[in-house]
Specification:
It is a single chain. With about 300 residues, the chain is α/β, with parallel strands linked by helices. It has 2 domains: about 180 residues, 3-Layer(aba) Sandwich (Rossmann fold); about 100 residues, Adenine-specific Methyltransferase, domain 2, CATH 1.10.1020. The protein is about 40% helix and about 15% strand. Strands 1, 2, 3, 4, 5, 6, 7 and 8 form an 8-stranded mixed beta sheet that branches. The longest helix is centred in the middle third of the chain and has 20 residues.
């Protein structure tokens, strides 16, 4: 009886991306899965981000794209590392010890005296000097993918951000490499090692135009939201939105199943372009957990899934 309960718990457990991507759909996975097809041959994501969605979907094959090449580099790196996790964890430990970063999963905690003095910011205070040195080392050549990942994990709100020169420029965050991060990485490894996955880094329309799509494919779109404010929305505009809905209509005419996430309104802003287009499809309102990276409060947001089946 206990084994059955454990197996059931394991099958319903939600995997979280080890990249903690701002705007990921981790908390919405149950609602997404309720609206996805029950069987999927090829799962296709033109905007895969940190990967929290594909990590929770069973398919025969995965085609995953994101225009952020650094995110795809990290995905490819982690997929390769899944073949030798012992080496990966040994490398993590050595780098953390070399820079003298905190890492509670390794029992490298912040001294109690610092916790008392800086009750709400002690991780940032402890790691700032080491983080700044690690960031400088990474920016010299920009080839050490492990350093890039650790900059993401220890950085402010875990955002992937670079300046106009291509230097990683995020300040230190009040965060730590903890057991939740460790678990997310191990879950990622155990999932991707068993799957057939191909990664791409292209414009979403160019990516889809390369594929020979079939009727048993399923495409999930999680584009930047036109009317919300996030770091990854900066390159998205009305022209992008119009291109997107044009692509979706073509897919529908070709009989390809899709679901797209978006918002009809957010605070005082209204997405008329998307709202008007969506009326001809199946609209499912979902309970939103949308937050902004610079304002961690829930917003007055009408978030939806649009289905063509």
């Amino acid at each position: 009886m206990a084994n059955k309960e454990n197996n059931k718990k394991k099958s319903t457990e939600i995997r979280r991306s080890p990249f903690f991507y701002v705007g990921d759909k981790y908390k919405l996975i149950p609602q997404l899965k309720e609206n996805f097809p029950k069987t999927i041959k090829r799962f296709i994501e033109p905007f895969c981000g940190g990967g929290s969605v594909f990590l929770n979907i069973e398919a025969d094959e995965y085609l995953l794209n994101d225009i952020d090449n650094n995110m795809i580099i990290l995905h490819k790196y982690f997929t390769e590392q899944s073949k030798n996790p012992e080496y990966f964890w040994d490398s993590v430990r050595k780098i953390i010890e070399n820079y003298n970063l905190s890492a509670t999963f390794l029992k490298r905690d912040v001294p109690e005296i610092l916790k008392k003095e800086y009750k709400k910011t002690y991780f940032a205070c402890y790691n700032k000097e080491a983080y700044t040195k690690m960031r400088s080392d990474y920016n010299k050549e920009k080839t050490n993918i492990m350093l890039l990942y650790l900059l993401l994990i220890y950085g402010f709100n875990r955002i992937m951000r670079f300046n106009s020169k291509g230097d990683f420029n995020l300040p230190v965050g009040n965060v730590d490499f903890n057991i939740k991060t460790q678990k997310a990485i191990n879950d990622y490894f155990s999932f991707v090692i068993k799957k057939e996955i191909k990664f791409f880094s292209e414009d979403f329309e160019f990516f889809l135009n390369q594929l020979e799509l079939a009727h048993d494919d399923f495409i999930y779109f999680d584009p930047p939201y036109l009317i919300t404010f996030s770091e990854y929305n900066k390159l998205w505009n009305e022209d992008s939105e119009i291109r997107l809905i044009g692509v979706l209509d073509k897919l529908n005419n070709a009989g390809i199943r899709f679901v797209v996430s978006n918002v009809f309104w957010h605070r005082a802003r209204y997405n008329g372009i998307f709202n008007e287009w969506a009326q001809k499809y199946n609209i499912v309102r979902i309970k939103s957990n949308y937050i902004s990276f610079n304002d961690n409060t829930e917003k007055d947001t009408y978030e939806v899934l649009i289905k063509n089946y």
